[in-house]
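Closing statement on the zinc ion sub-project.
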Amino acid sequence: SRGGSSTSSTSSIALQSTATTSGEVIVVSTTPIPEMRPGTSGLRKKVEVWQGEHYVENFIQCLIDTAVEKNGGKMLDTIIVAGDGRYHNSEAIQTITQLLAANGVNNIWIPRNGIMSTPAVSAVIRRRTASGDGSDGQGVAQGGIVLTASHNPGGPGEDFGIKYNEGLGQPAGEDFTEALYEKTLSISSYKTVSNSPVVDLSAPIGTVYKIGSSSVTIIDPFQNYLDTLKECFDFNQLKEFGKKEGFKMLFDGMHGAGGIFAKRVLIDELGLPESSLMRCNPLPDFGKCHPDPNLTYASELVEKMGLLPDGSATTSVDVASLPTLGAANDGDGDRNLVAGAGFFVTPSDSMALICDNWASIPQFASRGGLKGVARSMPSSAALDVVASARNIPCFITPTGWKFFGNLMSSKEMFDGKDYTPFLCGEESFGTGSDHVREKDGLWAVLAWMSILAKANESVENGATLVGVKEIVEKHWATYGRHFYCRYDYEGVDSNDANKVMEFIRENYVNGDTASIKTESDIKLADAIEFSYTDPVDGSKTSKQGLILNFSLPSGDPARVVFRLSGTGSSGATIRMYLEQYEKDASKHGMSAPVALKELAEEALRLVKMEETTGRDSPTVIT
Ligand code: G6P
Ligand code: ZN
C-alpha cells in the first residue's frame, strides 16, 4: 500500500511502519449541535466549545459525509490533517484521525509535530505524491483538514477553528460549507475507533501508524512547500542579495505556524542571520499576542521598523539603522504585513506594486508576465490602476480567498482563457498567486525581497540601498496614491451591528442619495450593495458590503465601505474601509489616517455609528 511504504525524500531517516496497533470501528450516537455554520474561512469557536462532548466529532463526521457526497459517493482515499499549532491542535488531530480512519480514508497524512502553515498545506494537497517526493507535481490528496482560527488569538478562552480545503488545495466553497452545515442539523451518529493508538506527532518523518485499515503517515511539513517557492523565486539571487551590505530583514512569526517556515526558508535556505527572526517559535497561545499582522497587533515589529501605530514614521529614529525589509505573518502563516525602514506598505499597495513589478519575480517573468489579477472588493483600486495601464484583466471579488481559487483554476473553463500566471490579494493583509490556492505570507515576503533585489542590482556594495519607501513613492508618482485605512469596531452587539447595516441599506442604498446633505465639502455621490456572480461557475453571492461613493472637491474619487466580519467567533465586528485617491504627488507624503480623517468623520455621521453602537472610536485602525 502507498502509505505503508511512504518515505521522505529529504529526511535521512526513512522509516518503515513502526507501530501497528489497530482500532475497531465503533458507531457512537450523537445529537445535532446548533450553530455549526462555517464562516468566511471555516468554523471558528471558543476552544471550550470545541472541547465539548461530540463537538469535533459531529463537525468532522459531517465534513467527511459532505466530502464523500462531492466525491460522487466514494470515500476519500488520502487526506492531510494539519494545524497552526494553537491550543487544542494535537488533541483535535488525534480525534480527527480516528474519525477519518473509522470512515475508511486509506491514507492520512500528518505533518511532523502537527504544525503547518495554511499555504504549506495547500502545497501538499497540490503536489505531494504517494511516494512523498512530489516530483511529478501531481498531488494525490483529495483534501486537507486545517485546524486554525487564522489570526484570532489562541489558548484557553480563545479561538480554535477547523476548515476544509478541496483537491486543488483551495478552501471549500459555500456549496460545501452549506451542505456540511445542513448535516450538522440532523446528525445522529459518527464513526470512530475504539482503543486507537495515540499517534506520536513528534515521531520521525516517514513513521506509519495503522489504525483499522488506514495508514497514518508522519510527513515532512516543509518539502512540498519549499519546492513550490523554489519554482516561484530565484533562491540564488535572493541568497546573494541577502549578503549585500546594508541589507537587513526582520521577520515576525507572531508565534504562529509561519515562524518555522520562515526559519527554514530565510535562515536555512537563504542564509540570513538568526537575528532576522523574532517570535518564530510556535506557541499554543501565540505568546498571548493577537496573531494578526496589522499595525495594531504587530506593534513590536512596527516599532522596530521605525513606525508609529498609525503607520507613519517615527521621526526620532535614524532610518539607516533600521531593517531594509520588515514583515510579519499571522497565526497560520497566510497573512502578511510588509514594511520598509520607517515605511508601512498597505496591503492594497503591496498588491499593486507586485503587479507592476512582475518582471522582478521569476514565477511571473518566466511565464510571460501576469495574465490576470484580482482583489477583494473592499481592497483599494490601486491594483486596478496598474492592471489597466498594463493591460492585465482585473477581477473584483467578494471577501474570501475561495473566490480567487475559482479564477485561478479557470483555465479551459472560462471563455477558453487561462488566467494564470495570476496575482491576487486582499486589504486584510492577504497576498498570493497561482502557486497554491491560499494566500501566502512568506510568498509575499519573498516577492518583496525579489523586488528589492532587482531594484538594487546595479547598486555597488557599500552604497546606500534603494529602499521600500523609494520604490513605493516612485510608484505613487506614476499611478497616484490611494490613501487607505480600515477602522474595526470589534465585539459590537450583533443586533446593533445589523442595525447599522440595515440603516445604510434603507437610507442610502435604497434611499435618495441626492437629497443627503453632508457637513463638509465631501459629497455623497451614490451608494450600492456589492454582489457577485462568479464568472467561472455562475454562483451568486449577495450582501457583500455596502459602498458609499463620495466626490471630493478635487474631483478625485473617494469611498467608504461597510461590512460585517465573517471570521469572528462571538459578537460582531463592523469594518469600515476608507479610500481616497490623490493624483497630486506633492500630497502623497501625508499619513493615511490624517488624509482620511474628514472622510471618516463624514461616513461615521452618515451611518450613525456612535448613536447605534455606543462606540465613539474603533478598536483597531490599520
Ligand atoms: C479570512 C479569509 C480571507 C478574508 C478574511 C476576511 O482571512 O481567508 O480571505 O479576507 O478572512 O475576514 P473578515 O473578518 O473581514 O470576514
Ligand atoms: Zn490566516
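The pocket of 6-O-phosphono-alpha-D-glucopyranose (ligand 1) is lined by residues 40-41, 150, 376, 399-401, 426, 428, 430, 565-567, 575 (CB under 6 Å). With this model delivered, the sub-project is considered complete and its resources will be redirected to Aim 3.
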